[in-house]
Design goal:
By secondary structure, the protein is of the alpha+beta class. The protein folds into five domains: 105 residues, no CATH class; 198 residues, von Willebrand factor, type A domain (Rossmann fold), CATH 3.40.50; 98 residues, Sandwich (Immunoglobulin-like), CATH 2.60.40; 236 residues, Class I glutamine amidotransferase (GATase) domain (Rossmann fold); 69 residues, Sandwich (Immunoglobulin-like). Helix content is 27%, strand content 27%. The strands form nine sheets. It has an eight-stranded mixed β-sheet with strand order 19-18-20-21-27-26-25-23. The protein has a six-stranded mixed β-sheet with strand order 7-6-3-8-9-36, with helices on both faces. Strands 12, 13, 14, 16 and 17 form a five-stranded antiparallel β-sheet that branches. β25 and β26 form a beta hairpin.
């Protein structure tokens, strides 16, 4: 047994000891029979002595053959194995079970000389599969690994070779190595079939991108990306890490590095195209920021950056990016009309083409249609509840001059007009309720339908508001009410000359208050005196955007999503009786403008998604014969029926998953829509692991470093194990045949002698 290194099933290996049972029976039977002399025995003993030695040898050989049958059968079933340099290696099972994991992430599109890393990976995989023999029983599993591993082939090498010819380019996704290893672990457990070890061979062909392997080493232990780990825990809360489990099964993951020879290959990439500042509208200058990253170790100088707006080239720039740094270049453009516009930034091509361009759909908003419901109208502007509000939304009307584009289109009505049947709320983006005494139930139903369909509703309180009446019709603890908070009571300072409340904290990340997040402008909001407010308790899923400095840190501005729309609650008033905000134009103008822009643009869904995501698109007419085109020009009809959303809006049939970065187009009968699919900018960082760093991540990862340009490795470093079960099975069959022949021969000869 010294030459046998282990058993696939150790419990069955113990069965070899059963071979000693016949010998034990023979020994015990001899001890139980005591000789008894009798007269006729002397003739029998005389004849027996003549054939005793021959008979003993014949019986001993028969016993040994039967013991060998039992022992060899038990050993065959226990699946013994040994290394290739062992004297018993000639008896090993030669059938191979190979798992090839092909890194098909976007980074493998890096071009080395005349071919990409991905092409080298596919070529090397083809060479490895060609060494297998399907008739011998060799089996290969072929996996392409990107964001989601895909099993392409799981049977014969011939099937794998056929599929390899179809792999021409990598995906546009990053590599989720943890998810790929989960699949490998599953295959290894199936191969072991409940035993302690698996004879499966695993090879990962990759570019050794550091980013892909960093997900496996957190605080020196094997870990995973949050997405992969959460997905696995959903199916198995106590799942063993795949690398740890592979070690238990005796399986190594051989990592063949086919990437660049440089530890940090040079590469430039565009990481974002965004609107800088506020998008005012068509005809108004808009600043677009294009961020370019330098993933290489050296300064990149005189790099040409071009910008295209709806296909029209803007003046290009020469930029400079520091090593391992980034820079943002700002372009000033003027969009001629409202709606979505295609903006594309391009760099001169380099070795990784996918991140040299980036498309973005920029939405230029139309005027925000705002319905203002004045709950306390007065003839004088400084006394009227919405007087200051109208003034800042229509600053130039009445002066004999009107700007070419006005960002807001306000309409002011009284509370009674809100209930008119001919008032169509669907024609507005925002409804602003200013100090209404009450909201009738039929109006509540209209407002709920308006917000649920995507509109925005703003509550501004005041002295006419009765909290109990608002709560009765607009608040619900289960979230079905419009109010984002339960109103409690009016709180007011005792002496307005001696004290007042102020905004103590604001959410500077929210678009409505982002202007005041700058320390220069923060006092314009946070130092404005507030003399009265209505205390409230926000709903659990509401977002408090600003809080006061009173003892209870009461909410001042609250936001909450309601179905497809949003609701805001301004817990004080826009009247000077409650706050000095209306008397400070530098405070009121940016606050109201930014609040209405954020609320009014909620109906403009983003037309940019990441690779691998899905998007839903709405149109304002019934779509006929919609067809979608990928960035490479391949088109297909959209299956299914459009969904009627009401308000004259239709949801297009389900669009295919975005598996390609770039600009996608949807062709309808009378128009063309577009949406952009964004490549993960971090995938452009091609920094690589060396062999020592890879080996330090986990014992199951074993590096194989190519020794030359042909992709050959430095030899098979492993002492590959092979199974001996087939050899033992053959010996068992031979022993069984010999035992049968020998027993038959002995029986016939002894019958003849007798």
């Amino acid at each position: 047994m010294g030459w046998i290194e282990g058993f696939g099933n150790q419990a069955l290996a113990v069965g070899a000891l059963l071979a000693g049972v016949p010998l034990l029976i023979h020994i015990f039977n001899r001890q139980r029979h005591a000789p008894m002399p009798w007269a006729g025995m002397q003739f029998v003993m005389a004849a027996y002595k003549k054939t005793r030695r021959r008979s003993q040898l014949e019986n001993l050989l028969l016993l040994l053959l039967r013991m060998a049958v039992v022992a060899l059968l038990a050993l065959a079933l226990s699946r013994p194995f040994t290394s290739s340099d062992n004297p018993l290696a000639k008896l090993t099972e030669e059938r191979r079970n190979l798992v090839l994991v092909l890194d098909s992430s976007a980074s493998t599109g890096y071009r080395k000389d005349v071919e990409t890393v991905y092409e080298r990976i596919v070529t090397r995989a083809r060479e490895m599969v060609s060494t297998l023999d399907g008739e011998r029983g060799d089996r290969v599993r072929l996996i392409t690994a990107a964001a989601t591993p895909q099993l392409l082939s799981w049977r014969s090498p011939e099937d794998a070779l056929s599929l390899l010819t179809t792999l021409t380019e990598p995906s546009d996704e990053g590599l989720d190595l943890y998810a790929a290893l989960v699949e490998v672990r599953r295959f290894a457990e199936e191969d072991a079939a409940g035993a302690e070890d698996s004879a499966m061979e695993v090879c990962l062909l990759t570019d050794s991108q550091r980013r892909s392997f960093d997900q496996l080493k957190i605080e020196g232990t094997a870990s995973a990306t949050a997405e992969s780990l959460d997905a696995e825990r959903a199916t198995s809360p106590v799942a063993t890490h795949p690398l740890d489990r592979l070690v238990e099964l005796g399986v190594e993951v051989l990592v063949l590095d086919l990437g660049s020879l440089q530890a940090m290959p040079a590469n430039l990439g565009i990481s974002s195209v965004r609107v800088v500042g506020t998008m005012l509208g068509p005809g108004m200058p808009t600043e677009l920021g294009v961020t370019v990253q330098n993933h290489g170790p050296n300064l990149a100088a005189s790099i040409r950056l071009a910008l295209f707006v709806d296909g029209e080239r803007q003046p290009s720039r020469l930029i400079e990016i520091p090593a391992r740094g980034e820079t943002e270049e700002v372009f000033s453009v003027v969009f001629p009309s409202t709606g979505y516009h295609v903006v594309e930034a391009r760099l001169d091509g380099d070795s990784l083409a996918i991140d040299d361009s980036r498309s973005e759909l920029i939405f230029v908003p139309p005027p925000i249609r705002t319905l203002i419901v004045n709950g306390d109208p007065k003839p004088e502007i400084d006394e009227d509840e919405t007087g200051y509000l109208r003034a800042i939304l229509e600053p130039l009307k009445g002066d004999g001059f009107q700007t070419e584009f006005a960002p807001f289109e306000p309409v002011v009505i009284g509370p009674e007009a809100l209930g008119f049947d001919d008032l169509g709320l669907e024609s507005y983006d925002v409804v602003f309720l200013a100090n209404l005494e009450s909201v009738p139930q039929r109006v509540v139903l209209k407002l709920e339908s308006f917000v649920a369909s995507g509109g925005s509703l703003i509550f501004s309180l005041g002295d006419r508001v009765i909290p109990e009446g608002y709560n009765a019709r607009l608040w619900s603890s289960d979230g079905t009410g419009l109010l984002p908070a339960e109103l409690l009571r009016r709180v007011e300072v005792r002496n307005r000359r001696e004290s007042y409340f102020r905004a103590a904290t604001i959410d500077g990340e929210h678009p409505a208050l982002r202007f005041f997040a700058d320390d220069r402008w923060r006092p314009l909001f946070c130092e404005v005196p507030i003399y009265a407010f209505v205390s409230s308790v926000p709903h659990d899923d509401a977002r408090v955007l600003a809080r006061l400095d009173d003892d209870g840190e009461s909410p001042l501005l609250i936001e909450r999503a309601y179905d497809r729309g949003r609701v805001y609650l301004w817990n004080t008033s826009i009247d000077k009786d409650w706050t000095r905000l209306p008397e400070s134009p530098r405070s009121l103008i940016p606050f109201i403008h930014e609040l209405l822009r954020d609320a009014g643009q909620s109906r403009a869904p983003k037309r940019s998604i990441a690779v691998g995501q899905n998007i839903s698109i709405e149109v304002d007419h019934f779509p006929r014969n919609p067809k979608v085109y990928r960035p490479d020009g391949v088109g297909r009809n959209l299956d299914g029926d459009a969904l009627d959303l009401g308000r004259g809006m239709w949801l297009l049939p389900e669009l295919p998953q975005a598996d390609k970065s770039g600009l996608w187009r949807i062709e309808l009968e009378n128009e063309t829509l577009a949406y952009s699919v964004q490549f993960d900018a971090l995938e452009g960082d091609l920094a690589r692991l060396n062999a020592n760093e890879l080996a330090d991540i986990h014992p199951a990862l074993v590096p194989l470093v190519p020794t030359g340009d042909d992709g050959d490795t430095d030899g098979d470093h492993r002492n590959r194990s092979g199974e001996l079960w087939r050899g033992f099975a053959k010996f068992c069959l031979a022993a069984l045949i010999l035992e049968s022949l020998w027993a038959s021969f002995i029986g016939r000869r002894r019958r003849w002698q007798s």
